[in-house]
Write a structure and sequence with these properties.
The protein is mostly helical. It contains ten helices and four strands; from the N terminus they run αββααββααααααα.
Length: about 240
């Protein structure tokens, strides 16, 4: 079975099964402030083409005009309901529609913004755009607590660039070079496991990285046993 066929089948099943939950969530968001429950975020996809990634809205209206692209846990733009949706990853469910129509894949490097994101990519990081972006990937598991990492930072975007982006891009590039269908299925399983037992999910990520021949520094960072260290993005000399 091809990756694209698996994407179509799994995304169709996911949308059907999640429909009741999506309807309830959308109604709750609308009742919260009377604004549209869906947010269409412009992201950069395969081949450098922009697309609109659909999410359940977890922030106040016009949040993109009230702060940077990185979001700390205590970011005032996130609504009370939004914190719950993010914690349970329910805000990502509408992206199965992006998968169904071919803009995304279930597994692949997470899509980035253009301003403040792809515009700062090194030539090496631009290889992340050679595949469809995904709903989940190894970085989604390792940095599922991104909001906590950035919390309290005077400049969350700068801290993201220093301690998350370098490792996230390395993971994405490894995926571009090494991924196969069985590993995609494993990543989906580890993503679900991370919600209830993150240490076990991180151990699974470690096994994948060992099989892929990842460097010791990347495997150490992904164990998350110590504070993340600053590093240069791929393609920048250390």
């Amino acid at each position: 079975m091809s990756k694209r066929l698996l994407d179509i089948l799994l995304s169709a099943v996911a949308l059907i099964c999640a429909a009741p939950l999506l309807i309830v969530s959308m109604l709750a968001i609308w009742l919260q402030d009377g604004h549209a429950p869906l947010y269409r975020a412009i992201r950069v996809g395969r081949g450098g083409r922009d697309f609109r990634m659909i999410k359940l809205r977890t922030m106040v209206r016009d949040a993109e005009h009230r702060g940077g692209t990185s979001t700390a846990r205590s970011d005032a733009r996130v609504t009370r309901l939004g914190h719950l949706l993010r914690r349970c990853k329910l805000d990502e469910l509408p992206q199965f529609w992006n998968v169904l129509i071919g803009e995304m894949s279930i597994v692949g490097p997470r899509p980035n913004t253009r301003i403040g994101g792809v515009d700062r990519y090194t030539p090496e990081e631009m290889r992340l755009l050679s595949v469809r972006p995904g709903i989940t990937d190894l970085a989604s598991i390792v940095f599922s607590d991104e909001g906590d990492i950035l919390d309290g930072a005077a400049d969350p975007d700068a801290l993201y660039d220093a301690v998350i982006r370098p490792w996230k891009s390395r993971l994405g590039l490894l995926y571009v070079d090494r991924a196969d269908l069985p590993t995609d299925l494993l990543i989906v399983g580890l993503t679900a496991l991370a919600i209830v037992a993150k240490p076990k999910a991180l151990a699974g990520v470690g096994s994948i990285l060992l099989r892929w021949g990842a460097g010791a520094d990347l495997r150490r960072a992904c164990r998350r046993g110590a504070p993340l260290v600053r590093a240069e993005p791929p393609g920048v000399a250390a």
